[in-house]
Write a structure and sequence with these properties.
Layout lengths: L2 H24 L6 H35 L2 H25 L2 E3 L3 E3 L8 H25 L3 H28 L4 H12 L2 H14 L4 H24 L5 H22 L1
Antiparallel strand pairs: 1-2
Helix pairs in contact: 1-4, 1-5, 1-6, 1-7, 2-3, 2-5, 2-8, 2-9, 3-8, 4-5, 4-7, 4-8, 5-6, 5-9
Amino acid sequence: MSILLMGFLGSLAAGLMTGVGALPVLFGRNITRYWNDVLLGFAAGVMLSASFFSLILPGIEAATIRTGSEVIAALIAVAGIVLGAAAIALLNESLPHEHFVEGREGADPGAMARIWLFIIAITIHNVPEGMAVGIGFGAGDVALGLSLAIGIGLQNAPEGLAVAVALRGLGYGRGRAVGIALLTGLVEPLGGLVGVAAVSMAAPLLPWGLTFAAGAMLYVISHEIIPETHRHGHQNAATAGLIIGLVLMMFLDVTLG
């Protein structure tokens, strides 16, 4: 199986977990705000662990091997992280979108339907996750790509459930809420293709790609997910969820890698 295909399939599987996580809504199941915050905290922990153990550290190692200098490798990692965070921040400011709790952000949406504003917001979250999986496979390290795909898939499930529950709260039917949650996850294979193609065709881009994806995810964690989990007085439980997600992803990365 080609690296390109593995990167696409890995990010596709991770993206599909968004729809899997939303399935309880289809059967009339709901989730309390408490558990929603715990699960989103878990998702943040997985992303945080993946950013460091699966992206930043391998990126520094790859840069050290390529340049022969730990100082230059560290500078590449710094630049990649900053560029990744800045890219998502720019998208966040320039694209019209709306969060379920925080409301509208970005440019003036004009007459754009509200549901599209929600989808754009979720897409801003999901593209860097797909890129991370694709870049992991593009590195030529199947174990790295697999651990990222599993980790991102695990954190996509509670995100998909949160999206579907929020859509139900806005009056959308069960089937439509689940379908929209699934569609938001299907942008990840597109990010995966971009990531795997870039680093597999241009090997010097690998350290940049790994750290760029990490910076993008760190921005999402800090700017969106953690503030959301602390908004309703469940910060202790959400923090416990974050720790569980972090150590689980660390364990997966160590054992699979």
